[in-house]
Structure formats: C-alpha cells, structure tokens
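Standup notes, structure subgroup. Blocker cleared on the calcium ion input:
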Amino acid sequence: MRKIIFDTDPGIDDAYAIITAMKHPDIKVLGICTVAGNKGIEFTTTNAQKLIKLMNYDCQVYKGAKDSLLKVADDAGATHGIDGLGGVPLVYDKSSLSSISAVDYILNTVKENPNEIEIIAIGPVTNIALAIRKDKETMKKIKAIYTMGGGVYRGNITPVAEFNYWYDAQATKEMFELGVDVPIHMIGLDITHKSIVTNNDLEFMKMTGGELGQLLYDMILPYVEAYWKFSKYTGCVIHDLLCMIYAIDQTVCPKEAIYHSHLEVSTTGITIGQTVVDIVDSWKQPKNVYVPLKVDENKYKELFFKIVFGEEVAEMYRKYVLS
Ligand code: RIB
Ligand code: CA
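Run returned:
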C-alpha cells in the first residue's frame, strides 16, 4: 500500500487528483495538507474537508500556510469558481480538521515512516519549504515528491511562469534544493497542455459516471468556461490530475522523454517563478528534478476513468470515445 500525503490548494483540478487517489485500491491517503493558492487558506482547507466528506474517506486535513514566502498575489481569482470547487454544494465535518499544522504533520509522518512517504504537491509549495527549513534531515527521508508546476518552454500566469511556482517562487527554489537527495518529479505545463480533457470526455463522464460523474461534471463547468474564454479550448487542462496519474503509473509518459536534469527557479523580476531546466546538461550541475516532456494523453484519460469509475466505464471510453 503506497502512503501519500497531499499538499494542495483545492481547486477543481486538485479535487480530481485527490478523488482519484482516494479511489485507488493500492493508495492510502494519510492526510491532506492545505495551502493558499487557488483560493485563500480558509477556502482551500474547507474544500479539502468537503472532499473527505464526499468520499467518506478516513483521513484528516492539516491547515498550512496562508501566505507564501515571497508573496505576489492573494489567489487565482474565479478560475475555480466562487468557492474553489465550482460552486457545487458540499458539506463537511468540522472534526475533519486536525489541530496539527501541515508542516508538523509532514515532519511527524516522515519521521514515523522513513523512506515510505510520497508527497503529491499540487499547489504552491510553501508548506514543503517551511518543513525543509524546520528539519531538512527529516525531509531527506521522503520517498518521492510529485509536484504539479513549472514549465520548460511555457508559463500560464506569465509568459514564462506557471501559477503554483509563481505564487511562491522562493518556496519552489528551496523545494528543488532538496531534489539532490529526494526524487522530485515535476509535472509541468509542457505535458499538461498536451493532455486536454475535452468536452466530449466530460459529457461521457456525465453519462456513464453515475452520481460522482455528474458531480465532477458540475464541478468543472466554471473551469471549462475559463479555458474557452482565455484559450479557446473546447475542454480544459486538469493539471493536478495528470500529476496524480503520473505518480500512479509513470508509463503515461515515455521513459525516454523523462529528463533527469538540473533546475533553477527565478525569484526576481519579470521572470519570477520561471523554471530553467538544463535538459542538455550544459551547466554540469547536480541533477535535482525529473521532468517528463511527452505524455500519452489517451492512456492518462483511460486510467482516470478506470480508477475512478471502473473497468466497464474505461472499456466504454476506449470503445466509444477513443476509437
Ligand atoms: O498552474 C496550474 C496549477 O495552479 C494547478 O495546481 C491549479 O490547481 C493551480 O493550483
Ligand atoms: Ca492545485
């Protein structure tokens, strides 16, 4: 059983990733740590609690940083709907919020489970940087970090920076310094934008996915509208879901296109948050990141349908959508 901790700013695409992990038979989500990003910390925290209640899952939420180390913004505005989960009416239990902070929960859990914990970091990485500052030796005992963020050849919030890393560039810089000791996989915009979930995919999910399929469909509508408004996509990019699916099965990205490289992060000026990835090893610096630059988008989406809705739905997806 894989033991994972989420570090997240739910967030519609975060919700898809978290629900996928909760549905996977070989994964135990030990806890959900929250951070400000898509929305402020109060929203991202109650949104995480809503997802636990929705999935009737046995874990708690650990509230994290409300401000980034290097603050550039309050949140991502309305991309994820007014409440961060597309406005879908969900309830939660106050008891699902622990009194332990996200940083202390990460450190305590890694100490108790050395070399077993995998962190799925799908928001700004402020909590991870604070944990490293507090106890780097413990953080070196993390089994792996899968982080959605960055981009070798593009940005989304600026021409060169991706939102999570732009939102806290200093924390991103400090996280990747750990990458020499801990395997860090960066699922960036280069491949998330090569795996658009189309409106047809979403309609299929609504028609075959039962109550959960309908809820996930309703949840993602504001996100789809934003992608049509800003990118003229007839669908959307569920960034965090690709990070989770890659963490589950790395073969969604061809091995020969996963680059073990040196990465630097800009923390100043117009390039703040930019990830500079030396995939040609020109700097001969220590390698601190694995960056996949190709993705099998059909395999990714098929895996999502299989894990969340079952083999029968996945078979229908292959037969009636992909073929
Ligand atoms: O740039 C995409 C990332 O920023 C995703 O994690 C999304 O949820 C937002 O946090
Ligand atoms: Ca996110």
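Discussed briefly. The mean pLDDT is 97.
Next: hand off to the docking folks.
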